[in-house]
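For practice. Supply one:
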Amino acid sequence: MCYIPTIPLISSSIPKDYMNYFNFAIIGETFLYFLILQFLYFFLNLGNNTYKYTFFPKPVSISNIELSKIEQKCQELLTQKKVYLDENLDILNFSQQSGYSYKVISQYLNSEKKIRFDDLIADYRVNEAKIIMKTRPELNSMQVGFESGFNSTSSFYRLFKKKTGKSPDSYRKQLKK
């Protein structure tokens, strides 16, 4: 057993058997107190106001010239390159491909186009699914969903019905008429 030094004033009143536990409690309390202070200082920002933690990005000012460039790049990515067919596409991947920050892309879509990124991509994917249903009727609904960029059958059915008002199967039946 290793030797742990004791506090002389307290050790005389505490039996030797309990001294190791007592020292452990003092060290544990000190460590816990230190952790609480660190939490208050950094996470609640009680120390100073040099760190500001924000969950929402600050608005970025975009000039009219930049707006047209951003719109051209977004249209190119969506219509020519068809990046929405990638099932793992998110706003970070899209912004990297566009050459703009995700904050700029997000603000452009929200303020200028009045649409969220996820809704925009869902619109393009649903339109692609409609085209696939017309041009390749031999594919079943699950294959159409994956071909049009959805990463699951349930999200394909849910978003297709939300955007068109019909399930993929009923839409397909309507096409056959």
Remarks:
- The chain has a mean pLDDT of 81.
